[in-house]
Amino acid sequence: MNLCFLKKITIGLLMFTAGSFSCPAQDLIANQAPTDRRVRSVDSVALQRLLDMQTYEHEADIYDSWDNTKAHPYASELIPDSFRIDLRGFVMPTTSTKVTSRYGYRPSFRRMHKGLDIKVYTGDTIVSAFDGKVRVVRYDAGGYGYYVVVRHKNGLETIYGHLSKQLVVADQEVKAGEPIGLGGNTGRSFGSHLHFETRLLGAAINPELLFDFPAQDVTANFFTFRKADYLPAASSSSANNGRRMASTSKKGGSRYYKVRKGDTLSSISKKLGISINSLCSSNNLKRNSTIRPKQILRY
User: Fold this and answer.
1) Which of 256, 202, 190 is nearest to 63 (CA)?
2) pLDDT at position 123 over 90
3) For residues 170 and 138, what is the distance between their CA atoms, to the nearest angstrom?
4) If you compute the radius of gyration of the chain from its CA atoms, what whole number of angstroms results?
């Protein structure tokens, strides 16, 4: 009986000991789980930042040529289906907030305006929007006047036209905010202003998708360029024609317009110089039909 009694005591002690250690052990495991999740989360953020830095450093590798003589020498190069443009580290090219002419088709001139006109005065300082390298410093009597093209590490090329003076030379490295020219009224210009373009491999991107001049800021940290939004021109007399945005592109004899926020059938018809009935007929729409931003209309 004494032996049985000792066995019972021993078993009881073992059970008590196991029970007394189970709660701290479970608490330790419970506390460890969220810590692991936090560590994994921190690791993921750090890894993503590293990837972002690596992407930013090598995005300019999409170009396989360097031409100091032409603004748009990319007729033979392929545009990626999708490309993320890093807009961090920007500086507004001018402190002026007044947009005098927007990106889009100009019915009066029957041609595309592939940039943004910002009101500046002759002699106003114009600076590089991002770090980069000056590719072109030239004069174009029938177009840009005195202009500068800068290729940036994020893949963009920015163009600064109608300058009164260029302050940089080709192949010069520049930093964001570094002066590259002075505002002016040279070339095909009807008043002192800065003609500002943003392009990717020659494809013109509406600068207002990237820059908010009234707010003196970029629209986001990143902008995703999608080739589907850009259609090749039906014909090209020179490499300068590059690529056209879907908003006013030709394909198979038709033109295409990409609807912007705030557009109506009436405003689009006036912008394109066509009747509302013609616009509706080409797109199987009614005059009271609802159109959505980024919708593609044919005309």
Assistant:
1) 202
2) yes
3) 9
4) 30
Specify the 3-state DSSP secondary structure of 251.
strand
Residues 6 or more apart in contact with residue 262 via CB below 8 angstroms: none
CA distance 62 to 100: 33
Inter-residue contact 154 to 218 (CB < 8 Å):
no
- Interatomic CA distance for residues 142 and 107, integer angstroms: 19
Instruction: Report residue 202 as tokens.
Output: 């020659």
* Cα 100 from Cα 258, distance rounded (Å): 21
**Predicted structure pTM score:** 0.61
How far is Cα 163 from Cα 185, in angstroms, rounded to an integer? 6
Query: 154, 87 in Cβ contact below 8 A?
Result: yes
What is the spatial distance between Cα 81 and Cα 79, in angstroms, rounded to a whole number? 7
Burial of 185 (0-12, 13-18, 19+ CB in 10 A): middle
137 near 150, Cβ under 8 Å? no
CA 213 to chain centre: 15
Average pLDDT over residues 80-92: 93
Q: Does position 229 have pLDDT exceeding 80, yes or no?
A: no
Mean pLDDT across 105-117: 83
Beta-carbon contacts of residue 166 (< 8 Å; ≥ 6 apart): 137, 146, 147, 148, 180, 181
Helix ranges (H only) for 169-264 are: none
Would you give the distance in Å from CA 11 to the centre of its chain? Answer: 72
Torsion, Cα of 235, 241, 247, 250 (10° steps): 0
Nearest to 174 by CA among 138, 135, 128: 128
Q: Which two tokens stand for residue 119?
A: 């009101």
**Amino acid (one-letter) located at 221:** N
| 12 SS3 class | helix
Least confident interval from 13-22, 141-150, 194-203, 237-246: 237-246
Q: Which residue, 108, 157, 109, is CA-closest to 130?
A: 157
